[in-house]
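Reviewer 2 asked us to include a model.

Predict the structure of this chain.
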Amino acid sequence: MWVMFILLFALLALGVPIGVALGSSAVAYWLLFTYMNPSIVPAVFFEFINSYPLMAAPFFILAGMLMERSALLGQIFDFADSLLGWIKGGMGAAGLLTAVVFAALTGSAVAAASALSVIVVPRMVSIGHTKEYSAGLVCAGGTLAQLIPPSVWMIIYGVITETSVASLFFGGIVPGLILATLLIILNLFLSRSQPVLLSKFDVKRVGHTFKYSLPGLGLPALVLGGMYGGIFTPTEAGAAACAYAIIYGYIAKKGRFTSTVIAATKPAMRTTAMLFLLLGCVGIFQSLAANQYWPQELAKWALGLGLTKYSFLFLYMFVGLVLGCFLDGLAIIALTVPVVYPIGMAMGINPIHLCILLVINLQLGTITPPLGLNVYAVAGVTKQPVTAVLKSTMPFFFVILVFMCALVFLPQLTTWLPTVVVKPVHFGGLGG
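Predicted model (C-alpha cells):
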C-alpha cells in the first residue's frame, strides 16, 4: 500500500495532474504487486463513472454557467440592496445574500466570487466602502457556493461513498445559512467604522426589484422544492435546472441566447471531462484498495492509535487545511475520501456530517495561499493586489474556521434536515 502512495506523491511532486497520477500509481501497483487481471482496469474505470447520481454534476455545471451569463445576478443584488441598503453595512449584507442565492444557481466558488466582484464591488465602493474591504467580502462570500446546494463537491463525495446526494444537499442548507448569517453579522460590525452613504427604504423599489429578481429566485426554488416534494431526484433536478436556464434565456434574450448556450457549453464540457477522468481513476484506486483490504487495515490502524471521533475529525480538518493550500477541492476529495471514509464509518461518524465538515474545510482552501483560487479571481477582476484581498478576507476566514470547529461538536446541524426531508439516517456515534 505504501509503495503506491509513495509513487502517487512522487508523480504529484513532478506536476502530473491528480487524476493521471492517481490512476497511474494504482495501475502500476495493480500490475506489479497483485495477481488481479489487468485487462479489467478499463472496465473498472467506466463502471465507476457509469453512475446515475453522477449525472447530476454535468447538469448543474451547465445550468450554473448558463445562469452566470444571464443578467439575473444583478437583479437579485438590486432586490437585496433595496431591502438592506438603508442599514450601515447593508450593501455588503446584500452582497452576501446575493452570494447565497448565486450559490444555489451555480455551485462554483470561483464563478461566484468573480461574478460578485463585477457587480457588488463597484456598488460598495460607490457608497464609500474601500475597494480592499469590498473585495475581501465577495471573496469570502463566494466560498458559500459549494456548501449551499447544488454542490459538485457533494455529488462527488456521494458517488465515492455511495451516500445519498439528496441527503448531502439538504445537509448543507442549515450550516450554509448559519454561516452566511455569521458573515453578514461580521460585515455589519466591520462596516460601522466606514463612512458610507445610506439609501432610504423605499417600498416601491422593493416591489419593483423583487419583480425582476423572480426568475433568479425561481431556480433554487425549483431545485430544492422539487427534491423536497419528492418530484425530482438530484439528477432530475439538475436536468430541470438546465431546462429552466435555457427557457429563461430564450424568453429574455430570444435568438441572441444561442451564442450564450454555445459559450457556456464549451467550458462545461471541459469541466465535466476533467471530473469524469478524475473519478474514473478514483474508481480504479477504490477497486484495488477493496481487493487488497486496505480500508480495513487503515481503520484498524487508526483505531489502534486511540483517537476519539473528535480528535480524528480535527486531525482530518488540519490535513485538509494544509492540502487546501496546494490542491483544489476535487483533488483533495479524490485523494482523501477513499482513505478517510472507512475510518470515519468505523468510528461511527455520520457520512453526511463528515461531508459537510469537509466541504467547509475546502471552502477555506479557496481563500488560503498559495493556491487560493478565489483570492486570485477577485484580485484579477478588481485590479487589487493579491495581498490586499487576502488581508481583507482574513476576518471572514477566521469566522468560517471557528464555525467549522464548532460544527465538529454539532452534527445535528448537518443531519437534522436530511432526516426530516429525505429519510431517517442512523449511523450512531457523532451523527446518530
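The mean pLDDT is 87. The CA atoms of residues 57 and 406 lie 30 Å apart. We have added this to the supplementary material.
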